[in-house]
């Protein structure tokens, strides 16, 4: 039995993202600037950052958000 496809494409590793992408000010996939009117919320994620568990709320541009 095959697994269903994920709801969203895999996110890049947090360590590979700019500060703006981590903060949700830029798309996690392409880096384009986001605003609250166009950003697509990708849901809460749990990651380790600097050795500590943190909650992360990544966002995407409409183009990448619709593809997910």
Distance between the termini: 23 Å
Low-confidence stretches: none
State the total count of DSSP E strands: 4
Percentage of residues assigned to helices = 10-25%
Number of helices: 2
- What structural category arises from helix and sheet content? alpha+beta
Mean pLDDT: 86
Q: What does the largest sheet look like?
A: 2 strands, antiparallel
**How do the strands of the widest beta sheet line up side by side?**
1-4
Shape: globular
CA radius of gyration is 12 Å
How much of the sequence lies in strands comes to 15-25%
Description:
With 68 residues, the chain is of the alpha+beta class. The protein contains 2 helices and 4 strands, in the order αββββα. The chain has helices at residues 19-23, 62-67; strands spanning 40-41, 45-49, 52-56, 59-60. The strands form 2 sheets. A two-stranded antiparallel sheet has the order 1-4.
Which features does this protein show?
single chain; 68 residues; alpha+beta; two-stranded antiparallel sheet; 4 strands; 16% helix; globular
